[in-house]
Amino acid sequence: MNNENLSRDEAAHRSELLSVDTYDVHVDLTNAADTSFASYPTATTVRFTARAAEETFIDYIHQSIDSIKLNGGHINTAEAIDGSRIRFTPVEGENILTIHGRSYFSRSGEGLHRYTDPTDDKTYLYTQYEPADCRRVFPNFEQPDLKAVFNFRITAPAHWVVSSNAELDRTLEDPADSSISKRVFKPTARISTYITTILAGEYFVASDTYVPTSTVNSGKIPLVAYCRASLAEYFDAENIFTVTKQGLDFFQDLFDYAYPFKKYEQAFVPEYNLGAMENPGMVTFTESYIYISGATQADLESRANVICHEMSHMWFGDLVTMKWWDDLWLKESFADFMGTLGSIQANGFEDAWTTFANRRKSWAYYQDQLPTTHPIVADIPHLEAAKQNFDGITYAKGASALKQLVAYVGFETFIDAARAYFKKHEYGNTTLDDFLSVLDEKSDRDVKTWAQAWLQTSGLSSLSTERIFAEDGTLQELRIHQELPAGVPTGLGRPHQLMLETFIASDDEEPQLTSTGKFSLEIPAGDSHSVAIDLDAEAREQVAAADLLLLNSGDQTYAKVYLSDEDGLQTALKSVSTIDDALARGLLWGSLWNQVRDGKLAATTFIRAVEFNLIREPSATLLAALTSQAQSAISLYTAPTEQASLWDSLYSALSDALESAESSSDAQLILMRSTLAVAAHSPLGIEFAREVSRGAIEDLKDADIEGLQGLKYTQTLGWSALIALAAHSEVDDLTLETARADQSSATSERGFAYASAAFPNAQAKQAAFTAVTTDQELSNEILTATANGFKLGEEKLHVEFYPQYFEQLLDTWNDRSIGMATRVVTGLYPAAVLRENKAIEEHPAVAMGEKWLEENPDAPSALRREIIENVADARRALTAQQASSR
């Protein structure tokens, strides 16, 4: 019986019945390095109080269960085990439950993930639980509001590094085998199951100590950073520690609350499903934040942002935790906001809000326009829904709404409310009402109406300006138009605090845009589809003379801003990168991109603007975003008949810009990465890719790439080049095999999987499709790399797999974890490629998806959501392609 999908009602009932005191958990990893062992022993004792002698259950996704004891008496395992649940009836009052079993090692990144490094055969393990995969490691009451104190004991090879949330108390050697030892950790603070953690393996260890300079502080805190031994030479732990120290100083004073845990460790781990996870005492990160081929300023900013994001979770999420996953936003929206704030104010990355505007909000805008969009405070009836709501709404839209809230109530009021919230609810669980009640006490604004409009409705507003001139040419009126999303009643509206900035263009052949000032506007709640703005004489003159109007300057609110020709659209396309302020440039580029996705601006026009500005854009963050969006514009939003010439044109523009980029600059590395990505689609890049591929084939360490001083041959760039060559059949299997074997690493394993699937022939596509759909030994990252390679190439290579894809959907979902199933479902979904004289409804990406949904109304809601979203993406892409072909 598959009963892993715990419901909100079941969790609420269990929390009414139980309160949990402690877990004593022993995990035996003695044989973890031997991959012939699929599982490992666990022993768990839970002390809890029951309010009634009523049947309940504890969660455990297991290989086997050896024994169950309740209050000293044995329970019949055959009767108690019910799928992923162990049912029992406690006595009223205090209870002790002990369970011995075996748990599976994971290759999916869920539970206890095991990785063997192909470079040196060393073994690495780490856990990832959110939202409910702790039960894959040891039995527990898997819901966030049943907090407890955890006592971990880990048996492992004596030479291994072993860590957990709390400090190590003592190490006990095995008297019968000196190569094995047991690490006993001190009790944790009272925390939720999903943020407990275990790390074990042959990790490289860097250490430091945090000595606070903040007024409010924790005292000295030990700092540790971990990575695989084979990555130690690339591991810039000193930078990581600097960001950590500056972040701790900043947040302790900002929140007026000392860091609430006893140590601060950070592990950068392989094949990680997320960016990072806020386990108190030991945060885990994807090792993608170790920059093997060099780091741009944008890369370092990104990592600092994530470090600060996870650090803010120590208060928003770990100290105070949501009661159930409906209020996931209570931690993720806050952390997204605070991560950016900490990047700027603690670590000096001044363009972090620009990155937020162009990357995080772009994610939110995308998610909010899908038919599956939801309010920031979502309805989460069960765990599968929770798993899927770690999305652009919960993170980036929520953070955008908080930025708007700060503009609405004031930063000091917002922070005062946060401080009161931590003190009132420390080590407890909360809901939206708990936060709003504290905010309401601190603010004289109507926060309840604000929350109803922003947190409890779905969809994305569109804003635009209109200048109305009199016959004599004087400005008569400025109006702001708002198109509300379907889910927002007109009477409620969507209030906005925002700014308007005006620009004038010089008369040069390449006009320069100069800001002439900005002023604040307010769009009130209620019926605000068209609002007249009261302007004084100076502002009226400023608006009238402007060649370009930038609505939402400073990015205070969350809305799509449309630019018309009257607002300065053509001026922006020509001169956006001449504006001094990076955030203003980013907002204009973001507006242009949204108009491409909505079919209001031709994708070719956007691509040409990107090509023109490649050598003019000074921000590394924006340059990386623009090169990525230009590629998406070609592959998704232009007709197939136009794509070949556009890929060639973009390759030429990138190649020229790369050639002129400053040696060892951020722009040089960004342009190199983009040039190789585009080379997979343009034959113009074959010779260049062949040269760069030497980094994966030959030992050229520390040598500059031919013709590109300051840019080294690396394995990472080399495999990107080999993938491009494979996509053109310009490399053979033997070369790939040799490169993989000669420089064995995680990079080469992923690159090999990607390149092998990228060959444009039926045999390679069949092998890739079969591997992704049937080989459950593939790790999460290798599966995704294979699927990405499969998707390269013309549609005719993929058509034969479409029926089989839809036939296997239910089996895929039932046979795999939700994380791995999602990778298969999204990774192999049919591409949306416009067909001549065919209606959008007839394309397989739409027609077959719609048919499957119609025929499977009772399929798991999480699977249906994946298909609904893919159909919606296909419709949008095909609509844009159709418009571009006219």
From TrEMBL:
Its EC number is 3.4.11.2. PANTHER family: PROTEASE M1 ZINC METALLOPROTEASE, PUROMYCIN-SENSITIVE AMINOPEPTIDASE-RELATED. GO terms for cellular component: cytoplasm; extracellular space; membrane. Its cofactor is Zn(2+). It catalyses: Release of an N-terminal amino acid, Xaa-|-Yaa- from a peptide, amide or arylamide. Xaa is preferably Ala, but may be most amino acids including Pro (slow action). When a terminal hydrophobic residue is followed by a prolyl residue, the two may be released as an intact Xaa-Pro dipeptide. One of its GO terms (molecular function) is metalloaminopeptidase activity. Residues 243-454 form the Peptidase M1 membrane alanine aminopeptidase domain. It holds the Pfam family ERAP1_C. It comes from Rothia terrae. Residues 93-195 form the Aminopeptidase N-like N-terminal domain. Residues 549-875 form the ERAP1-like C-terminal domain. Belongs to the peptidase M1 family. InterPro entries: Aminopeptidase_N-like_N (IPR045357), Aminopeptidase_N-like_N_sf (IPR042097), ERAP1-like_C_dom (IPR024571), Pept_M1_aminopeptidase (IPR012778), Peptidase_M1 (IPR001930), Peptidase_M1_aminopeptidases (IPR050344), Peptidase_M1_dom (IPR014782), Peptidase_M4/M1_CTD_sf (IPR027268). Keywords: Aminopeptidase, Hydrolase, Metal-binding, Metalloprotease, Protease, Zinc. This is Aminopeptidase N. One of its GO terms (biological process) is proteolysis.
